[in-house]
Structure formats: C-alpha cells, structure tokens
Design a protein that fits this description.
single chain, alpha+beta, Nucleoside Triphosphate Pyrophosphohydrolase, 2 domains, 5-stranded mixed beta sheet, 18 strands, elongated, ADP-ribose diphosphatase activity, hydrolase
C-alpha cells in the first residue's frame, strides 16, 4: 500500500505558507497537484483521504523570475526543513521560477547537506554563512557566478622634496627586499579613494588625501585563483612622520625619486616601471588621471562614485 498526495496551492501575491496534502491508501502510486484552478494528475485519483499541512519556506521574488529564501525564517528542525524545501521546490517549479537563492547561516550548517541532496550547489561563502543556488529549468544556468575579483590599491605619495613614501614588506614574495609603494586590499563596502588613504595610514602612519587615480592593473589567476584589480592612486601627504605597522611592514621611509626608480627591480619589470612613469607624469602635471565624482544612479537608486578625467570640462 502507498500514499497518494493531493497538493493544493492557494493563489496569493506572496508565496503561500502551506501546502494541503491529502493522504489516501491505495494499491498503486498517484500524485495530483493543484495550482490555482488547474489540476495536474500523474496517475489515478483515490477514494478516502485525511489532510496534512506542510509549511513552505518563506521567500520573495527577485527581479529575474527567481526566488530569494528568507534565511531568518528557515525551520530549525532538519526534518521540517527537508519537507518544506521539497514542497517549496515543487511550488516554485509550477510557478515557472528559475534561480533559487538560499543563504544558510553558520549555526544552520546541518541544513546544507539536505539542500545539496535536493539539487542546490555552492555559490560562495563568507564568514558566518554559505550561499547556495538551484537552477530549476532544464536549460543552461543563467545565475551570475560567484565573486571572481579581489580589489587592491596602491598609493603614490610624493612630498615637496621629490621624495616618495616607500615600504619594505615582511613577505617572501618576488618583491621581498624591494622598496615599493604602500599597497593593500580595500574592505567590504569601502570606496577606492578612502581605501588607499587608509592603507597608507596603516602601513606608514602618514596622513594623506586622495588626488586622482592614475592607472589600474588587471591580472588573472593569482591568490586563490581569483582575478585581481590594483588601482594606483596619487595622494598628497598631510603629515610626514613615519610609524610603521610592524605586523606587515619591515621598514618605511621617504626615498629620493631618482633612487626609487633606479632600483634594479623596476628596471627589470616593465609593468612596474610603466606604473611609476605614469605616476611621475601625473605629479609633473603631464598626465591627467581620474578623480572621484559622487552621483546617484537610477539603476539601483544608490549613491556611487564615478571616476573620470574632469579637466576637459566633460
């Protein structure tokens, strides 16, 4: 004897919270699913039944006919989550939904294997959570890939004596022992111009202001196989006393420009040499970089910064 399920989904603006399941004992399997006024029957109807309600996962539509599951409303019980996820996937498929986004917090980690078993895949992870996705249609997945780039900044700081602020890093990389520009990665939700000012301050103790972005480098398959963007910025020093970050920096100083560019490392590295050439041209006002302009975009309604050369009254 097996059970027959009758799934009835009410028509509402938000996803229904429950599916009403009708259970009947018969000698062969049968499944009927009702959505709105349409009944889809896969085998045969049954005789007598008793009702059973299953909660659906709380979720909302995204802008691409997909679904975002409400993380804070996930069932705490693994069994309840499994039942609700299966019913919700059935519901979303009937509604023609495509990509499903499921964020699971660290203290909900026991739910991850259940979602994987139902067809979800890892998308990305950050401290405290993992993001899973499921592409429902039987066609190539159109969901965006996981974050692929890390963003770094480098600060070219030169004083009135034509001395460049340089550091030696504590590392065993190819630039070990080389006097170089202060560099680092920007933080989450940090602007490029404020990130480079912060990095210079952290590594050298020198206060600066952002003047312009003079160049950026794009390279692939570096740290953790990610792509890397490094934005080189011209900064004006506001202070001159150096206090190094001893965790990362071996030494820092103001170095005469000619001595800096005369290092063999830069003579043998075409990319680094060209970066310094551009920085010097910007310092001598023979080259115009990009300055930051605050604007609002109608695409998302958020305040943003657009970097461009404004010297030609564009």
């Amino acid at each position: 004897m097996v059970a027959t399920l009758m799934v009835v989904m009410p028509t509402v603006a938000r996803f229904p919270k429950k599916l009403i399941l009708s259970r009947t004992l018969i000698s062969s399997p049968s499944l009927s699913i009702q959505s709105g006024g349409n009944l889809k029957q896969f085998v045969s109807p049954n005789v007598s039944s008793q009702s059973l309600a299953i909660e659906l996962l709380d979720a909302w539509d995204d802008e691409y006919n997909g679904v975002v599951v409400d993380t804070n409303s996930l069932p705490s019980s693994a069994n309840a989550f499994a039942s609700a996820l299966q019913a919700s996937l059935c519901n979303w498929k009937l509604k023609g939904k495509k990509g499903i986004w499921l964020k699971i917090l660290e203290d909900q980690a026991d739910l991850v294997p259940i979602a994987i078993q139902e067809g979800f895949r890892y998308h990305h992870a950050e401290p405290g959570y993992v993001m899973l996705t499921c592409w429902i249609p039987a066609e190539p997945c159109m969901l965006p890939a996981s974050p692929s780039h890390q963003i770094g900044v480098g600060g070219f700081v030169i004083n009135d004596k034509r001395e460049v602020l340089v550091v030696k890093e504590k590392c065993s990389c190819s630039c070990s022992g080389v006097w170089k520009l202060p560099t680092g990665y920007i933080n989450k939700s940090e602007d490029i111009f404020s990130g480079v000012v912060r990095e210079v301050k952290e590594e050298t103790g020198v206060d600066t202001i952002f003047l312009e972005m003079v160049a950026f480098r794009h390279v692939h398959q570096v740290a953790l196989d990610k792509s890397d963007l490094l934005f080189v910025c011209m900064l004006k020093p506001l202070s001159f006393e150096i206090t190094i970050d001893e965790e990362e920096i071996q030494a820092a100083k103001w170095m005469p420009l000619d001595e800096f560019i005369g290092q063999k490392f830069y003579e043998d590295d075409p990319m680094s040499e060209r970066v310094i050439d551009v920085c010097i041209a910007a310092y001598q006002e023979h080259y115009n970089g990009f300055t930051a302009h605050q604007l609002v975009s109608k695409f998302d309604g958020k305040m943003c910064y657009l970097y461009y050369d404004s010297t030609n009254n564009v």
